[in-house]
Amino acid sequence: MSQAAGPGGWGAPAPRVAAGHPQQQQQPRARRRQQPPGGGDAAARALSAQIKRAAGSPADVLDIVKQRGHVFNELHACIALSRLGALLRFDTEPARAAAASDPAFSSLLLCLSARAHLLGGRQLSMALTNLAWLGLGQSGAAAPDCLPALLGALATRLEGVLVDAEPEDAIHCVWALSKLGALPSALLGAVSSHALAAGWLRQLPARPLCSLLWVHARPSAGGAPCGALPRLLAAALVEVEAPGFLETFSAAELSMLLWSLATLRGAAPAAPGAGPRLLARVAAVAADRVVSFTPQGVANVCWAVSRLMPPALAAAAAAAAAGSQQQQQPQQQQEQEQPGSSSSSGSGAGDDGDAAELVAAARRLLSEFFGSAAAQLTYYKPQEVCNLLGAAAALGAPHGALIGAAAGYLRTRSHMLAAWDLHEALCAMLRLRAPIEPALLQRLAHRAGQLARGMAPPLLARVAWAVARAGGDAGPLLAAAAARGGEADFVASLAPQDLALLLWAAAAARNLGSSGPQAQQQGRRRAGQHQQQQQAAAPSQQTKDGTARLAAAAGACLLARLPSFDAHSLTTALVALARLRGRDAPADSGGGRALAAAAAEQLAPHVGAMEPQHGVSAAWAAARLAGGGAGAAGPLVPVLLGHLERRGDWRRLPAGAAARLLCLAAAEARASGVPPQQLLALLQGTQQQLHAMAPCDLATVCWAAAQLAPQRVAPGGAAAGEGRAAVHRAALELHGAACGRMLDAVDAWLRRGGARAGSPAHGRGAAAPGAPRQALASALSAGDLAAVAGSCARIGGAPPALLDALLAAWEELADAGACDGVAAAQLLWALPRLGRAPPPHAVEAAAAALAARLSRAGAAPAPRDAALAAAALEAFATLRYRPPDALARAAAGALAAAAPRAPQQRGARLPAGALQRLRGACRALYHLAATGAPDLSQLITALEPALMHALRPLRHGSRLVRPRQWAAPPPPLGAGAALRLLWALCAAGEGAGPLGRAAAAAVFGGVPVSVLQGSPELSRLLVDCRLALRASAPGTWLSVRGGWRRLRAQGAPRRVAPAAALRAAEAAAREALASELEAAGFAPARAIAWCSLPNGDAYGCFSPQQQQQQQQEEEEEEGAQAHPAVAAVVVVFDCPSHRSANGGAPTGAARLRNAALASRGLRVAALPLRLWAPDPGAPPAAQQARAAARARAAEQLAAALRGE
């Protein structure tokens, strides 16, 4: 804060009536003029007159010092200093520095130092005041070497003549010593005590009185206050309140008085503060003299009023409340009180009147001062402009003209701002909710980055928070904090609030640091700038790494200093750490679980005193730090729900807080259980807030409602059963309403972006015509779409209009490059389950995003990467999409890294969680094999120890299980997982290995027929595995409990039932190709074994006649393939359904069948069936093209038969 100017003149004190002494009038004492020794000498008087006449320049005075300094006495030295002060006081710094560096000036100071013991009070005041006006040693100005000794001698002399000195002279001396930075605290205490004892305050005019308060205010910010300060301040306030005295104050004196009172507020516990009546009078007098104030005075007055007004109003309100309470006491008690109590009981109305008067006077003062400053802001210093903004923000008094002028001023002079000015300006504009232009914010952030390394740690944390809160780039500030984070005292020197602010800034900068979708898209399309992008990304990655280290150090410090944090700072720090931690970090990274548990225990008793949204934020942060899941937030969620239930504050929850609390309650209900009545109240309260929710909140509600729909609440009796049913219905109703609101939001977003024209689609739960559209106009993210789609997939259905909107929005985000790997994998998993196939280009974009995410993880993928890879691979297999080889390898690496470990102890069982992860890994391995992954050995090797442990109960040596051993129990891994594992091993050529034999023993010795009857997919897998294993081990007879015939007799499908068109096309193709081969000299019956590819989509149950015909065809086909006269080529008629959707690569079943035939020494020639299928409606050109293609295919087959 800027400090008011010192005394500018020595006017005579104005007579006044002292407060508290109405019958006496104190007159100032007459000044006793001291005659200097030898003052009567004519030569001395002539020399004094000569010095006074040297008014041309400082050089004239210094020339006199050079020529006649050897005859100077103490009065001559004081007069010379006075003339230099008068000439240089308002001159430039270079002029004062030139005079101070002159040898004559040093000689003058030495002369004065030698005669300091002869100086009286008036000479001391003259010398010290002029030394202060010269600015020696201030603001980095050069000072002679003899100055400290001189100041010490003058201070010692003042202490000796204090009793005989005039009050004004003594106060001017301590003021000057304070300005020069040489005032001993003992001397200040002595002067203050003597002033109180001698009654100086009743004699002082305005300027010395303000100077004395200013001297006490100046060191109070950094040192201990004087012991006499409370009594001195009380006496000074009594004098200022004297009638008519305040009107004698000048503008500079009013500025000094207010600044001193504001700075001294709270300096001493017993020091009184300015009351509302006094502040109202001072504000009224200052408002009348607004034209007389300098820019520094305007800034000081506004800043002081902003500091003094709130406590004065609070004191007035407390006094009014106490008076009102006293008035309500019984009459008998009032009569027993002292006589003076009746006057005090009526003080409430007076206090209210004083407060109203203060508010009116302050409003008028700020209006006048802000208007004057806005019109003349170019003459203000940057610190003064920032102080004005800070005062407006502290009092909640936005002034449009001032804010606009200050924004333009700061935009052009941002390079002149100091660190504290930056903090005050940014915080003020944030509190005033004033829009900050991007150009201004960029300049302020740049200036903050320049000053970052020189800031104190607390100020660095506050400036970083202010820049990040305003939406600016706080990266340089965080980089400086991270660079200094290695210092032992950096994090330790931060107060709890500052540490929380620094963490908040780091979290906000991390979220803001990622470039937007349009920027990413343009960066990808811009050719020839890859190297520039890498160079630009390097500092960003360094900043992220530094921020991560800083967050780790701050988290450790937070855990160690947890008891010193209040509830608000702890909540802020927890939320920031949760955002910095990210979703993919391990649960115990940075002591997250321990910190979350300790913080939850500390915050739980304070939840009742917190705002509901703050309690929800704390619970959300604790759950995320602990790794999520049920019970991760500790006792916060039950305490929050119980508190809201007791107070009935469900409707007071903001929209975002309601969505988060519902998500936490859904997770809590899966483990320990939540009472149904609490869940019902929360569901109903959340549904009432849907109209105000943003898309991200709607997505959270959809996910939580889908979790609660299966009635996951606390068990109980009949009443609890009714409560579970009510929760189920309420969750489904909330999910439908949230989906309707999400449909409106997506539709509004698409219309605003021009992606889809027309009126919005009105589906279930559409918003009412008068509903606010603020939430619907918010930006969408791919994560929101994925959460909604996933919740609908769990529920089991979604409105068609919503699915259309989700697909359109996904295409829009995918084209803009704003769909990350997480959301892409979730969307790919959910949409096919809802019966909607995503467009091919969206699938390609999702595969690219997932590949980028897995490649960034490298050799240390996050735990969530394995789940994402498994979901994406399942979606790829469903869509018949073959992912790129790089993505398949990266997915296999992520799954291998997350593979569960086998127990080390012999006979130990795998935990339930490990078995669950192992089943998911088997499914992912199956999907990898089905999509055509090039190499599965890494994943198989990683899973083999745990799989062998899980399959061990069904292993009997190294042989496959035969029918006699059907009595073995089912595998712990599960029938479906074991069958998918065996299929994947056969596809990878590992069916004959140890793991393949163990899986085959588990499948053919433990899979019940009932499992296959309900799953055509598992039946098809069993057929494929039987064919592959018969090819690799011809002497082994495989069956399933009760035998293969029994399985077929019970209606379980074994092979595909081709459609009539497919059979006709195959028959026509055989005849046509046979004739073509006969023309080429080959006998088809002896040279070729015909085979048709099983159609995986057509598996189903056959009638007995179909089963008999199919069995006969299969036996003939198998016999033909095993006949020794058959050539080394098997012709397979392929069709489009046997090919993957991208590139026409063979599906997993086709590759598995080809591998089985190749293992028997046979080669496969796959011919496209569509070339021979009849198509009479095709144009002549197409028929000619098909004929040419058939000829080429026949020629290739003939070449294969010849062995070419």
TrEMBL record:
Protein name, as recorded: RAP domain-containing protein
Region Disordered: start-end pairs: 1-47, 320-353, 514-546, 1102-1121
PANTHER family named in the record: C2H2-TYPE DOMAIN-CONTAINING PROTEIN, MEDIATOR OF RNA POLYMERASE II TRANSCRIPTION SUBUNIT 12
InterPro entries in alphabetical order: Mediator_comp_sub12
Source organism superkingdom: Eukaryota
Annotated source species: Raphidocelis subcapitata
Comp. bias intervals (Low complexity): 12-28, 320-346, 529-546
Phylogenetic classification of the source organism: Eukaryota, Viridiplantae, Chlorophyta, core chlorophytes, Chlorophyceae
Residue spans of biased composition, Gly residues class: 1-11
GO cellular component term of the entry, any: mediator complex
GO biological process: positive regulation of transcription by RNA polymerase II
Single GO MF annotation: transcription coactivator activity
